Amino acid sequence: IPGRCELIIDAVFGVGLSREVGGTYRDLLATLPGCGAAYVVAVDIPSGIHADTGEVMGIALKADVTVTFGYEKLGTLLYPGRAYSGAVVVADIGFPPVSLERLSPELFTYEAEDIRMIPARPAYSNKGTFGRVLIAAGSKNMSGAAYLSAMAAYRMGAGLVKIFTVEENRAILQTALPEAIITTYDPEEAETPTVRFQTLLEAQCEWASVIVLGPGIGQEPYTRNLVETVLANAYVPIILDADGLNTIAAFPELTNYFTENIIVTPHLGEMARLTGQEVETLKEDLPGAAVAYCEDKGVTCVLKDAVSVVAGKDGSVFINSSGCGAMAKAGSGDVLTGLIAGLIALGLQEDEAASLGVWLHGLAGDRAAKRKGDHSILAREIADS
Length: 385
Fold this sequence. Notes:
This protein is 39% helix and 15% strand. It has 16 helices and 14 strands. Strands 5-14-13-12-11-10-9-6-7-8 form a 10-stranded mixed beta sheet, with helices on both faces. The chain has a 4-stranded parallel beta sheet with strand order 1-2-3-4, with no helix packed on it. The longest helix is centred in the last third of the chain and has 23 residues, at 350-372.
């Protein structure tokens, strides 16, 4: 009876749904929202959501709470299924440990207790103990990306952070982040490139224990030489982001420099440029797209979206469970690159730093949103959190 229903327990379809809902069942799912229920609780997965992709199979019922059994399903982690699932509760129904061993799952996410993975900070230490992060970022009138990446690296625990940027950015970066070391170059020397520029940049690569390459460097002619010089001369982990990725897309031959110590962090638009695929095609299978690029190029791939995915060289795939829409702001990705760099500076390996970094970035965004509201947070407040 409309207006008299307080609770709907949705158990129409479970994880076995593989075709579009039609007929009487479609009519039922279309009718249920009009019952005026205060709460909808879904059993295992909201009816109409594909358990492996999160796709709406023609029609689906939105739940306030989903009680799923044994392990969380991809369909409740990935959009649009995540938006239909509400709060997800994983209920233990007695699956024996051997069941997980036989499945050998390659997809995982983190839980609250996994924050212990952040390395402890020894009392007997100095700034050199916690790594040297080089941020090759920024261009004329574009200093913000360099600042945000450097700030995030320091907030995550890096001992020393150096920003390698154009001379025009020196004054503002020294004012905004006096803790950072600033080394500058002349774009005209980078474009040629001169021996002086090559020698200067090679020295920065030798200094660093981890490098962030690309945020805000623009797409001027000299950026190709900047990116190529770093890729050719650095023997430490490199986090390749933003305009660094756009440079790779414009000059695909630069992927010949790719090694297993590289982390790429494209959003969907950048991934489309890197692969030649349409954004809508990539959205259909985010884990598959990340894994394909990882396997093709031999790098760790962080594919950024509302639910980010990390494909590791060891074959593992991380699906992020933290973060919120408030983080959809300019500079948020720059914070992520610095955060991952900070974790590598603390001693984590590339795959682990990438997945843990994405998760911590989301947690920080959640915390900032609680303080500032869904519309009001700034990227630097994510770093501060």
